[in-house]
Amino acid sequence: MEEQKRSHGRRLFGVFPAQYPKEILWAMNILPVEIWDPPLEVSLANGHLQAYICPVVKRGLELILQGQGKDLDGYLFPHTCDSIQNLASIVHDFLGVAQPCYFFYHPKAPYGIPLAIITSGS
Fold it and tell me: 74-78 and 101-104 as β-strands: parallel, antiparallel, unpaired?
């Protein structure tokens, strides 16, 4: 990661998993670093999350709380599930991390328009 940052001038963004606009990030000279269930012992994150939360979110928050994301230039939280959406709020609103947090909402079709009309271009 440091090689990409140093040699190519890329910014590094911690991205929580699932679907996010990789091509847009690459076009912006951002290297997405996927945070997908890092192998950490969870201790700090438990105080911020419900006991039943998924391990991807719990360990991702633990990574942030332990300061292991300090070399990242920002975080991107795709709106893929309630847990990741709520994690974005926790990190952005309550933890005061130094890096900016961005939220990605997937495009959705207008309510009430059948998919066949949208895909046919009519």
Answer: parallel
Each residue's pLDDT tens digit in the chain (122 positions)?
777 778 878 899 999 877 888 899 999 999 999 998 788 899 999 999 988 898 889 999 999 999 998 889 999 999 888 888 889 889 988 998 889 998 888 777 666 666 666 666 55
Rounded-to-integer distance, Cα 91 and Cα 97, Å: 7
| Alpha-carbon distances of 75 from 71, 85, 106, 116, rounded to whole Å | 11, 13, 16, 35
pTM of the model: 0.80
> What type of residue sits at position 96?
G
Q: Report the first-to-last Cα separation within the chain, whole angstroms.
A: 46
**C-alpha separations of 106 from 81, 91, 109, 117 in Å:** 11, 20, 10, 19
